[in-house]
């Protein structure tokens, strides 16, 4: 087979650790997330095909600046996430922790932006069963439905990612993650990058239809 | 430690906790079996009651609302709690690691989590019967707009299915990683048992198709709760898109149901014909082919829903394609039996029943897959007969086969083989008397999911209901026989009662924790025999 | 042992710069009127950004081949889902 199973010696016991297997498990899980959002993208694509003009009208009420800022935030946090892995591999524990912390803060900033975005919309009555919805065309109603569900589901995944990364931060601090035992950190990073990739697609499809 | 059977082993936790907190794949498999059996038998009872109602036109023993809920729940329980998880969760869990020469699956704790998701989903299905607006009446397909409007417990039941999806996904994830990473030294991909190939193909469907169902069900809940406007036609949604999303999962789901079962057939036939399997390579590849082509045909559930003519033609063509790899399997199985030294024991009898019954089901699938005939037969009893032939006659019969094949190894006990054979025959006869008339009823125009029917359908309904009694008697005999075997005092210790050649027949009966003292080194194919074996 | 991941900080920062440039590009292009090309261009840029994130940040480029095969399988399955759905939508007669 292959020789990539790592054997650590803890006291007298051999502990078998399969980092590649662990990474494989995480990638397989990421595929389920991709398809979950993929399903929503299929619906988005279908409805945009059906309602192309009204999608454009509805999209004009979204704030491109906030969307762009959020995109940059997530891209940067993706950078710092992978840098934190590289740092721990170089035995730079403190630097790794700072980078992880910065990643989490970026996620937090993203969520704060989203909160203001949503609350503005809701304040103006643009939400499911809200007062403004009755005045909108079918296409616009569907657009907002997709908007709330997709960005909401995404935000949920940002929260999960932040929790995951925070746990990893603690592990790095406690040296449960080290220069030669860091698959967990890589896995958390993979999850975070996926959250980033989903937003990379969400952003133009909702904010850049002009 | 290695000689203590997994049944008796006492580790960190004792007694019941030793089971409920166990990450041993064998205990998890048995726990799935225990719970699943209860739900299977419950759904059999629901079916039995439905057939009783159909004995006469008009009201027989229940009103229409109860009938609608019964057929919905019969479908939900059978599909989500039995047929989809059945073979992977019970026998895949128990035997995949052993067949690969491994000590357990890749992620044992996640395996236990899968079981807990299953239990949570199962309890929620039960809960949906009792709370709120009452048991759902939408059919197991939850079509919009009715599922958005009915006051029955849709959100709860649909959330149950969502949770069950997690169980399925995690099992698939676990098996893929196990097969990639934990095969014994020397066991190349093409020396792996065909049951493993079946499970591998199935796992890719579980992994990639289930999330589509997940998001679709989530949207139903969100629409009911918040009026989001994604499927609701009153808000601009398209009910056909719901159907697309639903069937994008639910068609591949039927291959989740049948691929492990077909893998099992490839285990049983070489064992009971004392011969190497014919066409190992094609059989293995056909599992992958079925898994892939299965993603391409979902539109055949929507031929009369209003999709475009072009797409109907394309889906019909693709549907015919998927019959080809199944045909490859049947050919190779028969070629294996040919000139073999046939030992007709209960597992093989169930397999032979399967081949006949599944072929009937499969051929009628072609009738439904062809547009001109489908127009007349869709949403009639013809469809009901078709899917019972392939799902129940397919996976159900093979679930019995698996039980009868692996029972001695799992429990160290033996059931009465003669009684098992009798039970199998009665089951097979009852099955056909129950379901074959439904082809005729459908052809004559009897619609499905109808509480009442015209008097002209009465006679065939009568025959069918009598068939249900015979079949249930057969199931009763089978189940009681197995239970009696389970509760027998005397144990068997024969490591290989059937003369099988795969690794599970080289470990003690029942297997010890961690299966192998020493991981074996594999040098030959899984079904190769020495001349005098 | 395991494939050594790129632990060169510089590479990662360069990739990030590329991502920022592409983001700027996609926002700028949105201001132009490209009619039916809009979606294609937007998706092309998004795909490029995703490939950068996947290959470098997620190490797909340097990992063993099985991961690339897995990702390909996932993408192919997703594409069949969306393409066959559109075969219905495009040919519907209003």
Task: Describe the protein.
The complex is a heterotrimer of chains A (210), B (533) and C (94). Helices cover 75% and strands 5% of the residues of chain A. The mean pLDDT of chain A is 92. Chain A is mostly helical and 210 residues long. With 533 residues, chain B is mainly alpha-helical. Chain B has one domain (22-40, 65-419): Cytochrome c oxidase-like, subunit I domain (Cytochrome C Oxidase, Chain A, Up-down Bundle), CATH 1.20.210.10. Chain B is built from 16 helices and no strands. In chain B, helix 4 (86-100) runs parallel beside helix 14 and helix 14 (381-411) runs antiparallel to helix 15. The longest helix of chain B has 35 residues, at 239-273. Helix content of chain C is 73%, strand content 0%. Chain C has 94 residues and is mainly α. The mean pLDDT of chain C is 90. In chain C, helix 1 (9-30) runs antiparallel to helix 2 (37-57). Chains in contact: A-B, A-C, B-C.
CATH topology of chain B: Cytochrome C Oxidase, Chain A
**DSSP strand tally of chain B:** 0
**CATH second-level architecture of chain B:** Up-down Bundle
Radius of gyration of chain B: 23 Å
Topology order of chain C in helix (H) and strand (E) letters: HHH
Number of helices of chain C: 3
From the spread of the alpha carbons, the general shape of chain C counts as flat
Query: What would the average pLDDT of chain B be, to the nearest integer?
Result: 95
For the sheet with most strands of chain B, the description reads: none
